[in-house]
What does this fold into?
Amino acid sequence: MTSLAQVGMGTTLAGVALPSPVLTASGCSAAGRELAPYLDVAELGAVVTKSVMLRPRSGRATPRMAETPSGMLNSIGLQGPGIEAFLEHDLPWLAARAARAVVSIAGGSVEEFVQLAGRLVGAPGVALLEVNISCPNVASRGQVFACDPRAAADVIAAVKDAADVPVLAKLSPDVTDIVTIAAACVQAGADGLSMINTLLGMAIDTDTLRPILAGITGGLSGPAIRPVAVRCVWQVHAALPEVPILGMGGIMTGLDALQFLLAGASAVSVGTAVFHDPSAPARVARELRDALADRGIPGVADVVGLAHRDGRR
Amino acid sequence: MTVPSQVRARLVGSEPVGAYHLLTLDAPAVAAGAGPGQFVAVAVGGPGSAMLLRRAFALYTADPATGLVQVVVAEHRPGTAWLVHSPVGTELDLVGPLGRPFPLPAAAGTAVLVAGGYGSAPMFDLARRLRERGSAVHLVLGAATGERLFGADEAPHVADTVTVTTDDGSTGRRGLVTDGLTALVEDTAADVLYACGPMAMLRAVGEIAAAYAVPCHVAVEEAMACGIGVCMTCVLPVIGADGRSRMVRSCTEGPVFEASRVRWKDVGTLPADVVGADAMGGHR
It folds into this structure.
C-alpha cells in the first residue's frame, strides 16, 4: 500500500509538467467556466477547450444529440465564437484562475490552422495546442485530415512552425491503421498525440422513420467506445513508445483512466462523462489516486505503458 | 443568479398524479434561491448507468424553509421510467437550480399564464409570486386529455381566474389552450403573458402577445444532454439585443426567453442569417 498523500499525481505531457494526469476533453467542457460550480479548474491537469476556429460558427441545426447505449451521438458542428472572442473572454478567465489551457484548434485548411496557431502565440496560460484534424462533424465528413497521413502531416508541420508551445495531433479512430497516421504526425513534428476523437455513427428514429440527427451522422462518444480507444492507445504506444499520448474515450471512473495509463497514455481527458456528472474530471482524479494507492504504486509515471511489459502481478 | 449545486438528493416522495408522477426530493442547496422557470438536471439509472444524459425537469416547488423540491415527470422512455419507479429513499444525483427564471414585472399588473400539459409545473410558484407582488393572475391550463392536465385542482388557489381546456373535451372546454386566449388578454387588459409547454403552443401564445404588444416570457422545452451549458445541444435561433440572431443555449441563456426574440419558424433549422452560419461551408 502507498499512502494517498504519497501518490505522485504529477505527469509530463509532451514536455509540459501537469499537476494531475486528468484533463477535460475538447468539446465537452466548453472553455471551463461552466464547470466552476462543480470543481476547481486549477486542480485539473488542464482544461482542454472546445475547438476554436478563426470565425464565429453557428454549428448545425437541431436535433444535435441522440443518446445511445452507454454513449451518445453528437452533431454539433463546431459551434463557437471564433478565435478573437476566445482570446478576449475565455483564455483570460482560465489564466486568472491559474488553470492551464490546452487549446484545441480546428480549421478547414492548413492556412486556417496556421493562422489560429499564430493568434495563440504568447496568449496567457496556453500549455499546449491540440490540433483537431479529426472532427467528424464537418462538411467533408469522412474526409477529415486525420484519415490521410499526408494531409495530417501537412497540417501538423505547418502548425508546429507557427506555434510557441508543444503540439498534440488529435487522431480519429475511423482509419484502417491508426499507427500509420500517428507516425506521420510525429514525423511532421507533433510533440504528442491525442486519441481518440469520436467515431462516426448514426441512429434512426423508428417513429418518424428518419435519421434522429439533423446532421444525419454524428460522433459517437462515451463508454461504448472505450475499448476502441484503449486499443488505439495500446497500438500506438507499442509502435511509438517514446511518443507522449493524451488518452480519451469513454472514461467515467478512475479505473477507466488507469486503463489508458497502462496502455501507454501519459495523461487522460474526461469528456462525455461531464454530461453525466459535471464534477467527473475531479472525481476521476481522486479515484485514480485511490486506485494507485491501493495497488502500492508510487505514482502516475510508474504505470504509463506498464501493461506492455512482461509479467503480471 | 444563484450558483447551481450538484447534490445527492434523497427521494422523499413519489406519487402518481393523473398521467404524471410527482417526485419530492430533499435538496436544500437546490431549494435555496430557486426561482420559477428554473430547472434541475437528474442523472438516471443509478451507478454505472448506460444512460449517460441527464434528464431536465422544471421545478414545480422549491421551499427554502424545508429544503424540499418537487418535479413532475412524464414516464415515456427508460430514463423517466427508472425515475418514476425509484423507491422512496433512493439517492438521486441532482444539479440545480439551472437556467434563468421567469422575470417578474417591476410593478403590479395583470398577468395571463398559459400552460400545456405538465408545462404547468413552474406556473404555480410563478402565480404565487406575482400575486404576492399585487398582480392579478389569470391561469389557462390545457392538455390533450383531462388526465394530462397537471394542477387543475390547485389552480384556483393561486389564480384569480382559471380556464381549463382539453383537446378531447374530457375536462373543461373542448379545444386548444390558445382558443380563448385572445379574448382573455383583451378582457383582462393583460400587461404580461407567461407560457410553458410545447413549442407550437409557445409560438401561438407569442403571436397573440405580439398582436397586443404585451411582453411574453416563455420557457422552452429543448432536448438537453448536460443542462449546464457545455454540450451545445439545446440551442435554438434567438434574436439578440443587437438585432442579430444566434444559436443560443436554452439551458443557460434560457429556458425562459422573451417570445418575440425566438425565431419560432426557424427552430430545428439553421437560418442563413444566424451569426456564424456563413462559416458552415454551406453545410446545414
User: Anything to note?
Assistant: The interface with chain B takes residues 28-30, 34-35, 37-38, 50, 53, 55-65, 67, 69-72, 74, 76-77, 79-80, 82, 108, 138-139, 214, 222-223, 272-279 of chain A (CB under 8 Å).
